[in-house]
Amino acid sequence: MSEHRKSWKPVAGKNDPCPPLKSKTYETPPNLYLGFQEPGLKQYKPAEALKKGTLWPALFGPYESPFRSADSAGGKEDSR
Amino acid sequence: MFVYEKKLLYPVKASSCNPKLAKYLIEQYGGSDGELAAALRYMNQRYAIPDKVIGLLTDIAMEEFSHLEMIAAMVFKLTKDATPDQIKEAGLEAHYVNHGSGLYYENAGGVPFNASYIAGKGDPIADLFEDIAAEEKARATYQYIIDLSDDPDLNDGLKFLREREIVHGQRFREAVELLKEDYGAKKVF
After folding, report:
1. Domain B20-110+123-180, CATH number (from 1.20.1260.10, 1.10.340.30, 3.40.50.2300, 3.40.50.410)
2. With an 8 Å Cβ cutoff, are A51 and B160 in contact?
3. Whether B160 contacts A53, CB under 8 Å
4. Contact with chain B for residue A20, Cβ under 8 A
5. In chain A, N or C terminus with fewer CB closer than 10 Å?
6. Can you give the pLDDT of all 80 residues of chain A as single tens digits?
7. Secondary-structure breakdown of chain B: helix, strand, coil percentages, each rounded to the nearest 5
8. Which of A36, A60, A68 has the CB atom closest to B163's CB atom?
C-alpha cells in the first residue's frame, strides 16, 4: 500500500493448527521519521486537511486493512 | 473552564445496522488506550510539566474529549435501535443486562474503566514518553477496529481519528525535543 507499511515473513511450524500467514505487516507512521517539524512545510487546503485529519502532507499516513486491500501480503518487503 | 460547541469534531456516520461494531468501538471509549484515558492522562500531567509544553497537553486533552464524543456518537448510533435478538447476536447481552442501551466506560471485554490505565509520574520526560506510547497504542487499536469493521462510513471517521493519533505522537515527540533544549542545533533526530 505505501511506504508506511513494513512486512516480515514469520516462521511457520510444520504442525501449526491454522494455515500460516506467509507475511505479517506493521505500520510505521510518518511521525517516526519527521523529526522536529521544520517551518514552512507544504499544507493541504483547509477542507482537505479537515477530511484527512492533518494539515501536513508530511504527517499523513493513511491506513487500509492489510487483510482487505489488494496487496494483502503487506507493503513492500522491508529491505533495510 | 470549558466552552462547549454543540457539534461533533468530525461527522460520524454508520451505514449498516451492525451493533457488533459498538462492542469493538467501546475499547476506545473506556479502554486503557481509549480517548477517556488519553484526555484524563494529559489533563492531569500538565500540572507538573515545564511551562513551554503545558499548552500542548491542554490542547491535546481537549481534543481527546472531542474524540470521546465522536466514539460515543458512533456507539450510540449502532446500538440505540437494536432489538434484544440483535443484542444477543452481537454478543452485547451482558452489557444490555447491566446498562440497557446506555453507554458505559468499559473496554471491549466489558472491564470497567480504571484509573490505573493512566500514569502520572510527575517527571516530564517519563510522562511524555508515556504519552507517545499511548498515542501509538491508540493508533494500533484504531487499526484493529478498522480491520474488523466493514462499514466504510464508520471507517472514514475511524481513519480520521487514527490520523490524529499520528499527529499527536509527532507533537509529543517534539515536546521531548523542546525539553532537551537542543532542537535548534540542526541535529537529525
Report:
1. 1.20.1260.10
2. yes
3. yes
4. no
5. C
6. 468 999 999 999 999 999 999 999 999 999 999 999 999 999 999 999 999 999 999 999 999 999 986 544 444 444 33
7. 65, 0, 35
8. A60
